[in-house]
Amino acid sequence: MITNRQIKQTAWSRVTTHFKAAFLLSLVPMIFTVFGVMSDHNSRDVTFSQNVNPTAQSITKAANDMGHFLQDNWFTVIVVGFVFFAIMMSFAALVAAISDFFTESTVSGFIDWHESDRTPESPIKAGLSLLTNTAFQIAFLRAIYTLLWTLLFVVPGIIKSFSYSQAVYLYRDDLHAGRDIQSAKYYIAQSQQLMTDHKGQLFIMYLSLIGWYFLNFATFGLANLFTLPYTMAIRAEFYVALRGNQPEKTTIL
């Protein structure tokens, strides 16, 4: 396994030498990022025109009313709360899966670029080449697993996110090699095996990019024009190094 420094050097060379192609390859995740920044900015600009000044008496009355309501309808409150929580969890997993769906397709395009050693003729199309039902199923199931682990504690959720991180790329290799396509659960399990003893390396890789994240913050996301293609290329090079550049063996662990 080559070092993180070598992986980043390869990704840096690819992006800086062919920036236009790398940028277009990452265009769709870039659009998601822009909308995310705009949404966050708009949410911070929301103000309330009404000036509500509740009195102590009204607060006490509201608290008493709420207490009586909960006492009389505790079972209904629990059921409604559980259903609401399940819906919110499913929605969060869906949003994460949609974002990852396009991001992983972009990384797959960078893997194709590495394997062919040729600049994509149509970078945007190359970045959308892995938008399949199975890829989305993997992204969605992975998001659910990660959220459930995170509910237990943040650290296990982070560790599991690293364990599951290569699942879509393993599926990609089977798809490109013409092998039988397995279930989403299978590829997630294979990713966990592949990432054994390598989760720490991936964590250190992401940690080494913290300066770029601060730069994005300082430039209000403008630096993402470069950092996003760069990080996508790094993820691709990490997987290529991880599998030993032998796609025919990626599902035989």
UniProtKB/TrEMBL annotation:
Membrane-spanning intervals of the chain = 21-39, 74-98, 139-159, 203-226
Enumerate the UniProt keywords alphabetically: Membrane, Transmembrane, Transmembrane helix
Q: Name one Pfam family in it.
A: DUF975
Superkingdom, taxonomy of origin: Bacteria
- Please identify the protein, giving its name as recorded: DUF975 family protein
Where does this protein come from, organism-wise? Leuconostoc kimchii
